[in-house]
Amino acid sequence: MRNHDFRRFLDRISHLSPAQIAVAGTAFQEVRRRSEALAEIETRTEQEHKCPFCDCEGRQKWGTTKTKVQRYRCSGCLKTYSGRTTSIIRYIHRPDLFLEVLRDMMGDAPPSPVRRLADALGVNKYTIWRWRMIILDGLSGSSSEVFAGIVEVDETFQRESRKGSREWVKHLRNPASHPAPPRLRWYEYGKKGIPMMRGLSRWQLPILTLVDRNGARRAERIPNRTDTTIEAALAPFVASDAVLCSDGLSGYKSFTSSRQITHVEIKPKQVSTGNSSAYHIQNTNSLHQLYKTFIRPFRGPASKYLEGYICWFIARSLKRDPVEVFRTI
Predict the structure, then answer these.
(1) C-beta separation of 290 from 317 below 8 A
(2) In a domain? residue 290
(3) Strands across the sheet with 59-64, in order?
């Protein structure tokens, strides 16, 4: 819209009736919601004046991109750039729909299936999947970094999934070149008379969870539950004056004794021994239940993406603002 047309439009606003103003307000809110992603990109460009290529602060406006984002030309290297030149969404043509996907992932309601969300936004399902993978990369580091006071720690488990690997397809097609995978496909155990849970504990991937009474939360996939792994996972985050509540796993005892941290072991069906009722791991158990509820609709995500899903879960549990996440990405 040209400047004089915009001025005429503003002059006529005062002549609208109350009902028309209400309709116009709703329309403006809808347009604002759709253009919020572009507004965030413009804000970043206004705050960061340096060229992403040569760090020169001199620049001039140089038209707009196809998505209506202001483009600038550097006075030093003469290259053009915009507010998302160096971001991981620089090749996305619909940042407004990308923000809608982010809102769906971080909202209070359960996330929509990929196909349903693709139909609602009018894009391909593979586009939604690719955007989700970009968001999962951007959510890395969502867990809290400092745990103090009474800290609860425990592990939960996620069954390994090789979804999409096609290892059995390749083996059946050419057994000489592709050896048999180390285990059967999950749906074949009942058919071949092999009990589902016999000998399958080694396919359960441990996830270490940390919670303190200040609301800090952390979940991290660990390779195993050895003492060395547990100590390496806890050392950067647990304060030296904290009280660690856990079960009887030896890794927790080794960690607290080597750093002289107070350790309260919570035994199953523990009888009262004079300890305060404040020492428990109910918050971690509650976090485990929330994780199971969150991960169940995905029918076992592939293990190579599991770390991203864990970060997604923690970001949702901490109620991170979608616009803030978009700004970070």
Answers:
(1) yes
(2) yes
(3) 59-64, 70-74, 80-81
SS3 263: strand
- 288 and 156, same structural domain? yes
Does 288 map to a domain?
yes
Asked if residue 71 lies in contact with residue 82, where contact means CB atoms within 8 angstroms, the answer is yes
Distance of CA 40 to the CA centre of its chain: 20
In a domain, 143, yes or no: no
Taking a C-beta distance cutoff of 8 angstroms, is the pair 164, 302 a contact? yes
Q: Indicate if 82 and 103 belong to the same structural domain.
A: no
* CA gap 6, 258 in Å, rounded: 70
Which residues in 105-201 belong to E strands, given as ranges?
150-159
Last residue of a domain, one of 86, 107, 124: 86
Does residue 139 contact residue 132 with C-beta atoms inside 8 Å?
no
Please state the φ and ψ torsions of residue 237, each to the nearest 5 degrees: -120, -30
**How many domains is the chain partitioned into structurally?**
3
Amino acid residing at 32: R
Query: pLDDT tens digits for 79-130?
Result: 888 877 777 887 888 888 888 899 999 988 899 999 999 999 899 999 999 9
CA end-to-end span of the chain: 30
Helix, strand, coil % in the chain, rounded to nearest 5: 45, 15, 40
Region of 195 (left: φ > 0; alpha: ψ -120 to 50; beta: rest) is beta
The pTM score is: 0.79
What domain range includes position 290? 150-164+202-328
* Residue whose pair of structure tokens reads 């770390």 in the numeric block: 307
pLDDT, tens digit, 9 for 90 and up, residues 16-38: 888 888 888 777 776 776 677 77
Contacts of 201 (CB under 8 A, 6+ apart): none
Cα–Cα distance, 46 to 36 (Å, whole number): 15
Strand 70-74 relative to strand 59-64, pairing: antiparallel
